[in-house]
Design a protein that fits this description.
The N and C termini lie far apart (about 35 Å). The protein contains 5 helices and 5 strands, in the order H-H-E-E-E-E-H-H-E-H. The protein is globular and about 45 Å long. It has helices spanning about 5-15, 20-35, 80-85, 95-105, 115-135, and strands at about 40-45, 50-55, 60-65, 75, 110-115.
C-alpha cells in the first residue's frame, strides 16, 4: 500500500472520531497546516533539546507536544486557553496538526546549536506576547 493510501486511511479514522462541525473545522485547519509544512521541530544540538512550533493565523506558536504522552499537551493559542482548559474542546487545531504531522512524519526539522537556545526562546516568547497584545480584548474568540 502506498504512503498516501496509508495516510488517507489514517485520516479517515481520525475523521470518524470527529463529532461536531467545529471539530471538523479544526481537523481541516490542522490538515492545511500540515500540508503547508507549518509544523516545525526545532532541535538544539548537541543536547538534543527540542521545541515544537506551529504556524498559526497570527504567529508561530509554541506547542508543548510529546508524541508519546497525550497528557503533556500545551499550546500558546487562545483556543487552548479559552476552550481546551475549560474542557469545551479536547484540543486546538495546532495540537491536532502536531499529532498528524508527527504520525505522518510531515514536519520540518530545524537544527540549532545549543548556544542559540536562549535567543530562539526569547524570540518565540516575544512573538507570542506580541500576538496576544495585538488582540484588543481578552474575550473568547468564536468557534471555528
Amino acid at each position: 500500500m502506498s504512503q498516501s493510501s496509508t495516510n488517507d486511511l489514517e485520516n479517515q479514522h481520525v475523521f470518524h472520531q470527529v463529532e461536531h462541525s467545529s471539530d471538523l473545522s479544526r481537523m481541516k485547519k490542522a490538515r492545511a497546516v500540515v500540508d503547508g509544512h507549518g509544523v516545525k521541530l526545532h532541535k538544539f544540538l548537541p543536547s538534543g533539546r527540542t521545541i515544537w512550533t506551529v504556524i498559526g493565523s497570527d504567529s508561530e506558536l509554541f506547542v508543548d507536544f510529546d508524541p508519546g504522552d497525550d497528557s503533556k499537551l500545551y499550546c500558546a493559542c487562545s483556543d487552548f486557553y479559552f476552550r481546551v482548559l475549560s474542557n469545551k474542546i479536547s484540543e486546538c487545531y495546532h495540537l491536532l496538526a502536531c499529532k498528524i504531522a508527527q504520525k505522518e512524519e510531515m514536519y520540518v526539522v530545524i537544527n540549532f546549536s545549543d548556544d542559540e537556545f536562549p535567543q530562539f526562546l526569547r524570540a518565540l516568547v516575544s512573538d507570542n506576547l506580541r500576538s496576544i497584545s495585538a488582540r484588543t480584548t481578552a474575550k473568547e474568540e468564536p468557534l471555528p
